[in-house]
Specification:
The protein has one domain: 2-Layer Sandwich (Double Stranded RNA Binding Domain). The chain has two helices and three strands. Helix 1 packs across helix 2. A hairpin with a 2-residue loop joins strand 1 and strand 2. It has about 120 residues and is of the alpha+beta class.
Length: about 120
């Protein structure tokens, strides 16, 4: 009911230095590269860093060959944690790849599954 009001869980916006932003961009590129390794070439993988109300937001997105775009966001909570750890990188890549593959499966439906003869 009060989701758009300025009171409540107010937090200060995170600001990154140029080096922290560069590190986040490098880490995000690593997530995108790992996601590409997990998916066939028909899937288009992209990433971006944008500014939100709470500070920078990293987004990885996958456009499957059929269906809607699947995306995941990473928002650093403080400048010291602006990098994405190896475990987080793998989790993000595997999660977004699995979601994109599931998107294709749902769009294609069960009738396109090959039958054994």
């Amino acid at each position: 009911m009060y989701g758009n009001t300025p009171f409540g869980n107010e937090t200060e916006a995170v600001t990154l230095t140029q080096d922290q932003r560069k590190a986040l961009r490098r880490d995000l590129a690593g997530v995108a590269a790992r996601t590409r390794e997990l998916l066939p070439g028909e899937f288009v993988v992209g990433s971006e860093i944008s500014e939100g109300e709470a500070g920078p937001r990293a987004r990885i997105a996958v456009q499957p060959p059929v269906g809607s775009v699947v995306s995941a966001d990473y928002t650093p909570e403080d400048p010291e944690s602006a990098t994405i750890s190896d475990d987080e990188r793998d989790d993000l890549a595997q999660g977004i790849a699995a979601s994109a593959a599931l998107q294709v499966k749902q769009v294609m439906g069960e009738e396109t599954t090959p039958t054994a003869q």
